[in-house]
Amino acid sequence: MSMTKASARFTSLFNRKNASLGAQSSEPVEKTLPQLDTAQRPTPTAPQVDPAVATSLNEIHAKIAQQVAGLNTLTALARQLADSTDTTITESSRASDTSEAVSQEIEQSRETTRRSLQEIEQLSTAVTEIEAQLGALSSALQGVAEVANGITTIARQTNLLALNATIEATRAGEIGKAFAVVAEHVKVLAKQTGDATSDIHTILNELTQLIEVLLGQGGEATVAAQAVREGTLGIDEVLDAVASAVQDVETEAARIASALSDMRNGCNTGIARLEHLVENTQKSAESIERTTRDNSPAGIEHLLREGLAPLHGQANQLVQVNEAYAEVAESSKLVDVAARNAQHVASTAANDLDKLSTTANGVLKDIDTLHHSVDTINSRLLNLNEALNRISKVARGIADIAKQTNLLALNATIEAARVGNAGRGFATVAEEVKDLAGRTAEATASIDSTLEQLRQQAEQLTAQGSLSLQRAETVRAGTREVSNVVDMVASSMSKANQNATRIVDVAPELEQTCGHVIQALEPTANSATDIVQALDRLNKTALRR
């Protein structure tokens, strides 16, 4: 028979007898009744109690002794239920504290993941910009290479003019000696120019290879950043789901706490009423004992009028106790349902967090790859700036050579004018050399202007690379923090699941003990009815006497 049916049956039984029951508690009352001394006899001079009345009193006394024993048993069961409820309340409080801690940990972790996502977005944008600027830089370097090729061609033409001037000077004899010296100097300068442009091409090749490496690292960084972003989004989604699960667990924990509070209040009420019943029943037993000792009709009359009055209300009070424990039984069912819900939600969340730990480890590997790529880009960008400075230095050397060449050509022009008609050919060559020197100067100026722009771009790239590295380090630190929090949250959710499981395990025991209390109320109530009936018979017997 279920507790609800048993309680209803109990209440129905005593409603038919116009009885209703009740109780409340704190300390057990274990009381035993003294044995009546039936050997005592009134003095010969005193009126004696009718033997039938004395017999009825002894019967009632025996029934009261049984009633006290039954009430003590009920009180012990009620206190057992109260103790179990207190234990469950403690477990419920732990579950609530665990859920609150998990909620705070998740919120902190979600803030970290959001910051990481922002950093990843900015990092991805920065890497994309670096790749775009590297592409533009590569195109600009191709322009420098073309200008350098032009300077190489000019150097060859200058060398050829100097060679022709040397031949012509040899033919001119004594007049051409000065021009021959100038021509030799021009040839040396032309060779230096050619060597310098060769150096520029070498550096440009290094830069081209460096840019290819940087672009490759940029591609790797982009792929890694995308993987980190997707992984972090996955972590954030799971944390969002777990946060929702924790809210559900907190809701169920609140329901459990409320139901347990109702149970404890009901237990307190039931125990207090049972103890009150024990106390009143004990007083009635003591009144019977005194009346038996006195063995006087007046004492019997007083006992029937006042001393046994509390016994008539027992049935009513026991119905109230039954109703209190029926409500306790309903609350215990709520505890069971809420605990099972919390257990299911916590178990599912704990499993999700176990999987999330694997995801977080994968993200950590991706962020390590991203960090390595960005670190490589950052260090290589420093090499880029250094290479551009080397080209600029070589270009300035070529510009100096062009100035020297122009000066030699100017001297040759002056010398040609001095010797008159014999120097006309040399004057023509000198003008051509001056023209080539001017073109070389213009080319080096163009290279220098381009390099200045490239240096500015390289500085911007270096700054972006440094900032990107900082962002990568921030993301890595954040991801590690999230990974650590995930482990902590997983552990906490496991504890929450264990707490819920323990409540689930104890809930049937609460319901069962409550059922035992309700079942034990029925014979106790029957005993109360028997006592009332015996009192009615005693009254009738006393009235007849």
Protein described:
Keywords: Transducer. Residues 53-289, 314-539 form the Methyl-accepting transducer domain. Residues 84-113 are annotated as: Disordered. The chain has 545 residues and is an all-alpha fold. Residues 13-45 have low confidence and may be disordered. It is rod-shaped, with a radius of gyration of 54 Å. The protein is built from seven helices and no strands. Helices cover 91% and strands 0% of the residues. The chain has one domain: Methyl-accepting chemotaxis protein (Helix Hairpins). Helix 1 (3-15) packs parallel to helix 7 (424-544) and helix 3 runs parallel beside helix 7.
Order of helices and strands: HHHHHHH
**N-to-C CA distance:** 47 Å
CATH class: Mainly Alpha
Number of domains: 1
Q: What multimeric state do the chains show?
A: single chain
Q: Using only CA atoms, what is the Rg?
A: 54 Å
Biased composition (Polar residues): 84-106
Organism: Alkalilimnicola ehrlichii
Protein name: Methyl-accepting transducer domain-containing protein
Domain Methyl-accepting transducer: 53-289, 314-539
